[in-house]
Amino acid sequence: MLNWIKFLGTAGGRVVVFRQLRHSGGIWLNLEGINIMIDPGPGSLVRIFENNLDPQDIDIFVLSHRHLDHSADINSVVESSTQSTKVKKDLLIAPKDAVEGDDPVFLKYLRKGIKKIVHTDENLHLEYKNIQIKAHIKHKHRGADTYGLSFESENKKVVYVPCGRFFEDMLYAYPKEADIMIFNTTFVKPKPAIDHLSAEDVKKMLKHLKPKLAVLTHFSVHMLKENPEKVAKEVEKETGVKTISAKDGMKLSF
Ligand SMILES: [Zn+2]
Ligand SMILES: [Zn+2]
Fold it and tell me: How far is the CA of 162 from the centre of ligand 2 (A)?
């Protein structure tokens, strides 16, 4: 079976997301026919229809963390997907601080549209039909619980590295030799005061983890000015790992 990923948005950072310099609809992963909506940021519902996808086809919702650039449209997409909670969907995976407490980004009244809500932690390992979903490491990211995740079928592995400041443990916690590794690469060079990954950090991870393909996304203004395609080429040249930069609406089959 052919698997695919649709990049409904590639925006990252305050300006690019909230001035919509690029779209911010998140990532739609189809793995073995299972549809997984990851990080539906602002405009995700619009982008889903714009790309001729149907929210009713979504099986699993995933939030890497609660920040709005990753979660703003979770309610709209769940409302659409579940036909206003009438048709229940199987699974939502999110850190506890995104779905519980006084200020959840996922509204309480929509919970009845989801059969099972799983709180992400570093031990998360669940099987859903013929795929496995795992969390690998808690990131250091601006006060929001944030987890790196992987999605694995019998012969394909997709790893998602969300926002966060690079630290050494990331080299060892993430799985090696994935088919695709998606990096929220907000900056070109590290900015120590800001909890985001840079292309320099991605290089360190690629040299160690050696996926078959790396995809850069979640770009700041700084990254857009430097040209993500050029940055991806430099990353590829230095690491030897095939690297591309995502574009809004890009579909990747694998
Ligand atoms: Zn964030
Ligand atoms: Zn982010």
Answer: 7
